Amino acid sequence: MSKRVKGNMFVCQSCGTASLRWMGRCPGCGEWDSLVEERGSSPENVAEKEINAVALACADSLDITRVLTGNSEFDRVLGGGMVPGSLVLLGGEPGVGKSTLLLQISELIAGKGDKVLYISGEESAEQIKLRGDRVGAESRNLLVSTQTSMEEVTWLVEKEQPDMLVVDSIQTMFSPEMASAPGSVGQVRECTMRFLDMAKRRNLSTILIGHITKDGAIAGPKILEHIVDVVLYFEGDMSHNQKLIRTVKNRFGPANELGIFEMTSRGLQSVENPSGMFLAERKKNVSGSVVMAAMQGTRPMLVELQALVTRSSFSTARRMTAGVDPGRVTLLMAMLEKRAGIILNSCDVYMNVAGGLSLSEPALDLAVIGAVVSSYRDIPIDDKTVVFGEVGLAGEIRAVSSVSARVREAFGMGFEKVVMPPTNLDSLDNNKRKELKTVESVLDFLEAVGL
């Protein structure tokens, strides 16, 4: 079989769409002047190779032994620690603390005796040393290098034989085999594949830092997130000290886990009690305030949901939310008008999750209704009450998941009453049932919380 040389392609730097000829506008995403020529490659002739398949039942089982980093929140979002040979991608806004956190993680692992190689394509060794002094990074096992060439990084890994590799960032890496500039779709894809091969072949735990676009997605082709084993998003408002890491993808553990950190003068510190942190500044006996038992991955936490309902001075009422889906809030208010006779079409409604957390689970519905009606009628809900449950359009209260963890967290934080769906009662211990209040409809709920 003869080889056919693949010609040069024009690749969109926004979405990765390939074209045989240059076009002013990308046919995939519609972006103007985004197609860049990339050098083609000669496909390998596999006709003479021996290729085999193996039955799944006969394949060897993999016994995963995780390596604890020493940071409890980072270990949580990884699913219980680093898996040797895994490739992790961490993305986030500029200045949120990605480099600071990974320098701390590198120091913790190096302090255990493992060798860590920290590759930076954005800062000099002297600049990294300034941050290292602030977070207390002083281990001799933590090596720093400022390289951007994949060939040089590969040579350095072969020379130093590290146990863990950190790359800051993948957008600064380039391969001389590619004609495009660093940060382009082709370079990001090629360098990520090289790091993946290095991680699997050497059983080397590797963490890549990724830039994000103005839309909040990791820069580069979407295939980048498909290649890696774990995708983490670093979230945080610059005006708050609280920073969040959310697991978007994890081949070795549960997705949607949440790690919570607090930025201090000594770097990012783990928050062991997030419920206490989110409720620390809550005012009691105030209308429009409801405490909800939420689930973030496998972790229960109590958060405060606030609502403010006022008479609108415009012909069209305003609906503004922070941390809650505005479409879901509008849907629940329409249900309240039909099933409970509460007319809100002439009122402005503002809703916020205190602490900057974003919630999307169905168990939020009951708290939304409680906060809106409490503010509308200006009647506070008992400050020792926690609520959770999904609400249907017929006004029924539906079951949710992880009820035992929610109830345990509520009573552990000193709350005395939990309002929940009736169908979840069978999954709880008998000794807890007497402290719970089940409601079957929205009208039952409003009566149970005194609204």
Question: What would your notes on this structure say?
Answer:
With 451 residues, this protein is an alpha/beta fold. 26% of the residues lie in helices and 24% in strands. Strands 6-5-7-8-4-9-10-11-12 form a nine-stranded mixed beta sheet, sandwiched between helices. The radius of gyration is 26 Å and the shape is globular. It starts with 8 loop residues before the first strand and ends with a helix.
How do the strands of the widest beta sheet line up side by side?
6-5-7-8-4-9-10-11-12
Average predicted confidence as pLDDT: 87
* Helix percent band: 25-40%
> What is the number of strand segments?
21
Name the poorly predicted regions.
Answer: 1-5
Give me the number of helical elements.
Answer: 12
Distance from N terminus to C terminus (CA atoms, Å) equals 79 Å
Q: What's the Cα radius of gyration?
A: 26 Å
**What kind of sheet is the major sheet?**
9 strands, mixed
Coarse shape = globular
Structural class computed from helices and strand pairing: alpha/beta
